[in-house]
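Q: I'm writing a short explainer about Multifunctional fusion protein for a general audience and would like to include a description of its predicted shape. Could you first generate the structure from this sequence?
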Amino acid sequence: MNLNKSTLKTFAIILAISWTLITGVAHVMATDTQKATFAGGCFWCMEHPFESLDGVISVVSGYIGGHEEAPTYKEVSAGKTGHAEAVEITYDPDKISYEELLEVFWRQVDPTDGGGQFVDRGSQYRTGIFYHDDAQKKAALASKEALGKKRIFGKPIVTEITRATTFYPAEEYHQDYYKENPIRYKFYRSRSGRDDFLEKHWTKDGKGIKQTTWTEEELKERLTPLQYKVTRKNGTERPFDNAYWDNKQEGIYVDIISGAPLFSSTDKFVSGTGWPSFTRPLKTADIDEVEDSSFFMKRVEVRSGHSDSHLGHVFTDGPAPTGLRYCINSAALRFVPKKDLKKEGYEHYLPLFE
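A: Of course. Here's the predicted structure. Afterward I'll give you a sentence or two in plain language.
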């Protein structure tokens, strides 16, 4: 039977409508399920990270965000439709939150690339978050802002956040491609540049930030003159004239360059020196202590183990329980208040304040 393009389009539109109706009915029947839609370049690479999560019911590859009804893969990949390759995720919010899905999404993509993803170029391979309600929009915007503050990539986050429109499921042979064609999938992925990028910025488990490596020129652009002087030139800011010396809010202090957690307000005390002072770091493994003989005196310098930034010095005239005083420059730190810990991905430090 020969079918012209118009007929095929009609069938595709009917299929899309049927898909919407079927999933809508399923949503009514199981009111505890919700949808999330993300574009992250080639959709083959976006299925597995989500399908492996507890609470995710299904992941479907498809197209969204364009002007063409019922697009085909050939049309989308040619960049003629305005659509992006994407995945539509059905999940149980009682088992996994939308915020957790956002965290997984950011760890699969290069959110600073506005021209595509890795070897795949063009707007059809752009990154995007397509929200389904105002709560998702708010969460997506907050997570984007939080990621930008962590300064992981050295470039602005350009991922678009827009309202979800009609999602068109891709052709059947694209669904679960990594399972159905494992050899071809591994060959493509290994040469796409995606894994190299992710391995550069994230730890092996995909949850932590790797040690930051930026050029000095990049750091000069990213930091204020004072922040650069303190962190890269071992400078010292003026006492009683800096951001955090008198800060009494609950929260944690992170590396201004890498975003690595360094100190907590629970260990902060009033030293009378005019600089933020702490009895101990959050994790000693994240702090390097080195002998400093500058200015004709012997001191112990404190540096960040993640960015090799100068933070300050540690002295033995602190209060109990450690007897130590970590005297730190505000310019080397960024404060994350308690109320923003979850939003910025530091929620595992919330028990410190309970």
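A: For your explainer, you could say: The chain has two domains: 5-201, 216-353.
Q: Perfect, that's easy to follow.
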